[in-house]
């Protein structure tokens, strides 16, 4: 598992959606999040960083800021004694899942709809 933080030169939400869609098509990605204020895209998963950057550089200027192992959020042992799970309201990250939302549509034109159509019997 790798965590990549990339610096992107994007301006609006439309570019944000395009960038996230471009990266989400790469196999092996677990999560994607974007910080628009700082222009940082965070990608977590088993994927080649060169592939991610080359995909983004087709449309935007992209640079790798940090690259390292992804940190696990699960605590093992150790009591602690703190209340809550340690997350704040500001820690929420938006993740987008791009699959195939629309099923394939098929249609059939009959010769009755188009009388000039050539029909071989």
Description:
- About 9% of the residues have low confidence.
- Helix content is 17%, strand content 23%.
- Strands 2-3-1-4 form a four-stranded antiparallel β-sheet, with helices on one face.
- It is an alpha+beta fold.
- The longest helix is centred in the N-terminal third of the chain and has 12 residues.
Keywords:
121 residues; elongated; 4-stranded antiparallel sheet; alpha+beta
Rounded Rg: 23 Å
Count of strand segments:
4
Largest sheet: 4 strands, antiparallel
Proportion in β-strands = 15-25%
Tell me roughly what share of residues is in helical segments.
10-25%
Order of helices and strands: EHEEHE
The stretches of 5 or more residues where confidence is low (pLDDT under 50) are: 74-84
Mean of all residue-level pLDDT scores: 75
Question: Count of helical segments?
Answer: 2
> Structural class, from secondary structure content?
alpha+beta
Adjacency order of strands in the biggest sheet: 2-3-1-4
Distance between the termini: 60 Å
Helices and strands in order:
Blueprint: E1 2-8, H1 13-24, E2 29-35, E3 40-45, H2 49-56, E4 62-69
Antiparallel strand pairs: 1-3, 1-4, 2-3
């Amino acid at each position: 598992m790798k965590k990549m933080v990339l610096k992107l030169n994007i301006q609006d939400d439309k570019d944000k959606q395009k960038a996230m869609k471009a990266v989400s098509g790469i196999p092996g990605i677990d999560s994607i999040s974007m910080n628009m204020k700082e222009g940082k895209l965070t990608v977590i998963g088993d994927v080649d960083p060169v592939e991610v950057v080359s995909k983004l550089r087709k449309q935007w200027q992209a640079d790798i800021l940090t690259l390292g192992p992804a940190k696990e959020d699960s605590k093992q042992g150790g009591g602690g004694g703190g209340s809550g799970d340690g997350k704040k309201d500001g820690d929420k990250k938006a993740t987008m899942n791009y699959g195939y939302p629309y099923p394939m549509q098929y249609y059939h034109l009959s010769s009755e709809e188009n009388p000039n159509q050539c029909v071989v019997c």
